[in-house]
Amino acid sequence: MPSVVKINVLTVPPEMRTELERRFANRAGMVESSDGFEWFELLRPLEGTDRYLVYTRWRSEEDFQNWQNSQSFQAGHAQASTEARGHGHGQAATGSELWSFEVVESAGRKD
Length: 111
Hints:
By secondary structure, the protein is α+β, with helices and mostly antiparallel strands. The chain has one domain (4-102): Alpha-Beta Plaits (2-Layer Sandwich), CATH 3.30.70.100. The protein has helices spanning 17-25, 61-68, 71-86, and strands spanning 4-11, 37-43, 51-58, 95-102. The longest helix is centred in the last third of the chain and has 16 residues, at 71-86. The radius of gyration is 15 Å and the shape is globular. The two termini are 27 Å apart.
């Protein structure tokens, strides 16, 4: 069974970029301990867009759904909301959409 990739596309105003990155840095590895988790990356836009990509790769769709319904997922998002209020900030992203893909082929280097 091929892995699945979920890309959360976050629209982030320039003044909230540092805050978004700080929140992700403080997420305490919650997703990494989830069963079926394979990879995470937060991708910062370089030019021409205000959209960050949150890339996660999972062993299966079921593993992703289990994580989304887990206490870790709920706790992580609750923590972000609490931190936002504590720093006088609201939501870092003004929009979000989720893209889903199945891995057909992949390659990598092992250095």
